[in-house]
Design goal:
The complex is a heterodimer of chains A (about 450) and B (about 230). With about 450 residues, chain A is α+β, with helices and mostly antiparallel strands. Chain A is about 55% helix and about 15% strand. Chain A folds into three domains: about 5-155, Beta-Lactamase (2-Layer Sandwich), CATH 3.30.450; about 215-295, Helix Hairpins (Orthogonal Bundle); about 305-445, Heat Shock Protein 90 (2-Layer Sandwich), CATH 3.30.565. Chain A has helices at about 5-60, 65-75, 105-110, 150-200, 215-265, 270-295, 310-320, 340-360, 400-405, 415-425; strands spanning about 80-85, 90, 115-125, 125-135, 140-145, 305-310, 330, 335-340, 360-370, 375-380, 430-435, 440-445. Chain A is rod-shaped and about 160 Å long. Chain B has about 230 residues and is α/β, with parallel strands linked by helices. Chain B has helices at about 10-25, 35-45, 60-70, 85-95, 105-120, 155-165, 175-180, 190-205; strands at about 5, 25-30, 50, 75-80, 95-100, 130, 135-140, 145, 150, 215, 220-225. In chain B, the strands form three sheets. Chain B has a five-stranded parallel sheet, with helices on both faces. A four-stranded antiparallel sheet of chain B has the order 6-7-8-9, with helices on one face. The chains are: A alpha+beta (about 450), B alpha/beta (about 230).
């Protein structure tokens, strides 16, 4: 599961905070308003019910009173519904539409016992206030049902309005969080940009100082770190350059001097000629070794990618190694890809040379593009690489057991290590596989663009 | 026999290169400082110059610039430094080629031969005058005019322009240009082409940043647009 980004989390926290605050305020407002309105309404209902009850009591005062007439004469406005209960029977103005059943039994009992009572009850899909007034003088009880439909509608509107306010507040909270997080994260974004620039080898990048003392601390310590890394990298670079110079200079003398000897080989006696041959071969090997070592030492630098026609480059290299053009098997005609041409050329050259040394020569060089990745395959028909050596062959100074059995020892043991390093600099992969039909297949995959 | 001047401060390298290149048929003079090299070249102009970059006193870059001011003698840098920065700076200063020590005498000799070959003129059966907008190229006379003004190109720059003009309108890859101009038969250093193209543009384009004729074709190479 991937975690949310810091900025998204800050925004979410602000949104949740705003939501919690506005929701609880809205809830409290709703409850308080609702209670006070209901209380007021209840008091009004009780007052009205007592007045009406007094009126009914007067109406029922005489001999053989007409309850219906008394009820009809009662002025209750549109909403209040009067009921009279006498001898266990309800009397109403109109036919019973569920009104009597809405009066709870407990309330009836209380009223029957002579206690006035009031209760909120559900009535159809709304609610109502029922007020019960005992009328002992006329052996009856008076009930008045005041539906709260209108009040409920008001509550509905209030709830909607408060809900909207909470929503708006939440959105405002989220926006504030988004803006604040941008402000807060800007220094981090600057640091990230600077770090990216530095990672690509440009040590001049620095983070701008900030007025805020807290943020300034970050900028200052980051810049100090860059200074130190840059100084160390410069020292390393200078050391590598010095070593390089000190190794390359005597080799130049050796190389030129042996070529003078080699040119006169025919004038020498057999023993001296054999010695000159040894000298020439070993100087050449030493040259390759030093060049490879120095190359390896700086191979952790980032790849210098630029658009390169890899097919043309491969053709040129195969021609220079004396391989027939049919060896190249390409599925992409001419492919221009962003790679480091110098490094790609070394990868190819070292794989082809490796095939020549340990596998009897490259029989196929495959070049293609699969899913935006450059795929290079170099096949040979040698003994292949045993499964337990497939990782090891890319180590420095590793030489395959199979090859040492064949007595091949003219390599520097660095060729495949360099291949691995160059591939790594492109964030690609390299592996040894079995070639169908026998032999080894080295497969390199390079992403076309820097990720 | 071609006269070769070696400017190299390391006595052993200087002597070994001298012996090996004399075997290759050059008349070699060798000096250990840039100042001596310049004086030597002024008194007896060489056909080719090998220069080391790290020299006591005047360094190799200044030596190349001073030699360039004197004429268009082919200059090859032989240096232990292989940083892109150094390569580009040396080529920008006016060197024609750059090799990193240790270089095999055979390879060095092949490169010197290639430089000599083109330095001694390339006008095979090329037309007398070629025009590309304001650029007028006279391959046989070895002259280039921008408008009415004569432009001074080094031999490498001139050769580069001629190769592009020869295939006018077609794209030549860096590798093809290396083959034709520097005579490399193996995969060579494409920086050579890029730096020389930059220098050529500064000389024959009115707006080198937005070249009208010497056009880069992304990923493929260069072409000369009419």
């Amino acid at each position: 599961m991937s975690r949310l980004g810091l900025r998204a989390r800050i925004t979410a926290v602000f949104a949740l905070g705003a939501l919690a605050l506005s929701a609880s305020l809205a809830f409290a407002t709703y409850q308080l308003t609702r209670e006070s309105l209901l209380d007021e309404r209840e008091r009004a209902a009780v007052r009205a019910a007592y007045l009406d009850a007094a009126f009914i009591r007067t109406g029922l005062g005489g001999e053989d009173p007409d309850i219906s007439a008394a009820l009809q004469n009662l002025d209750t406005g549109e909403l209040r519904r009067p009921l009279v209960r006498r001898d266990g029977q309800f009397f109403a103005r109109t036919a019973d539409d569920g009104l009597t059943s809405s009066i709870p039994a407990a309330l009836q009992r209380l009223v029957d016992e002579g206690t006035p009572a009031v209760q909120r009850v559900p009535l159809r899909d709304s609610s109502a206030i029922v007020v019960g007034v005992p009328l002992p003088a006329v052996e009856a009880s008076y009930y008045e049902v005041s539906p709260l439909t209108e009040l409920e509608r008001t509550f509905g509107v209030l709830a909607t309005v408060l809900g909207l306010v909470a929503l708006v507040t939440t959105v405002a909270g989220a926006s504030t969080g988004w803006l604040i997080s941008r402000r807060v994260l800007r220094p981090l974004a600057q640091v990230a940009d600077a770090a990216g620039t530095i990672a690509s080898g440009d040590f001049t990048a620095r983070v701008a100082r900030d007025n805020d003392p807290d943020l300034d601390k970050l900028a200052v310590s980051f810049n100090r770190m860059v200074d130190e890394v840059s100084a160390r990298s410069e020292a390393d670079r200078r050391f590598a350059a010095d070593v390089s110079h000190e190794l390359r200079s005597p080799l130049q003398t050796l190389s030129a001097a042996t070529s003078v000897l080699d040119r006169r080989r025919d004038e020498l006696d057999d023993r001296t000629a054999a010695a000159v041959d040894l000298l020439t071969d070993e100087v050449a090997r030493f040259e390759t070794l030093v060049t490879d070592l120095l190359e390896l030492a700086k191979s952790d630098r980032p790849a210098e990618r630029r658009p390169t026609d890899v097919v043309a480059l491969t053709r040129a290299l195969l021609a220079s190694r004396g391989l027939p053009p049919e060896v190249l098997e390409t599925t992409c005609g001419s492919a221009v890809l962003d790679v480091d041409p110098r490094r790609f050329e070394q990868v190819l050259a070292n794989l082809v040379d490796n095939a020549a040394k340990h596998g009897g020569g490259a029989v196929r060089v495959g070049l293609g593009v699969e899913n935006d990745r450059l795929v290079l395959e170099v096949d040979d028909e040698g003994a292949g690489v045993p499964a337990d050596e497939r990782e090891l062959v890319f180590d420095r100074f590793a030489r395959g057991r199979a090859s040492s059995m064949r007595g091949g020892s003219d390599g520097t043991g660095l060729g495949l290590a360099l291949v691995a390093q160059h591939v790594l600099a492109h964030r690609g992969t390299v592996a040894v596989l079995d070639r169908p039909g026998g032999g080894a297949r080295f497969r390199v995959e390079l992403p076309g663009e820097a990720p | 026999m071609p006269r070769l001047l070696i400017v190299e401060d390391d006595d052993r390298i200087r002597l070994s290169l001298r012996l090996a290149l004399e075997d290759e048929g050059y008349v070699v003079r060798d000096v250990s400082t840039a100042e001596e090299g310049l004086a030597e070249h002024k008194s007896t102009p060489a056909d080719l110059v090998l220069v080391d970059l790290m020299l006591p006193g005047m360094d190799g870059f200044d030596c190349i610039r001073s030699l360039r001011r004197l004429g268009d003698v082919p200059i090859v840098v032989v240096s232990a430094r292989d940083d892109t920065h150094d390569v580009v700076a040396a080529l920008e200063a006016g060197a024609d080629d750059y090799v990193v020590k240790p270089v095999a005498v055979k390879e060095l000799s092949a490169r010197l031969r290639a430089l000599r070959r083109r330095a001694s003129g390339s006008g095979e059966d090329a037309p007398k005058v070629l025009r590309f907008g304001e650029i007028e190229l006279r391959p046989e006379a070895g002259e280039v005019l921008l408008g009415d003004e004569q432009v001074h190109l080094t031999r490498t720059e001139f050769r580069l322009l001629c190769e592009l003009a020869d295939q006018s309108g077609r794209v030549l890859s860096r590798q093809q240009l290396l083959d034709r101009v520097w005579g490399y038969d193996v995969y060579g250093d494409e920086r050579l082409v890029d730096v020389h193209m930059g220098r050529l543009r500064r000389k024959v384009e009115r707006d080198p940043a937005n070249p009208a004729h010497l056009v880069t074709v992304r990923g493929l190479g260069y072409k000369l647009a009419p």
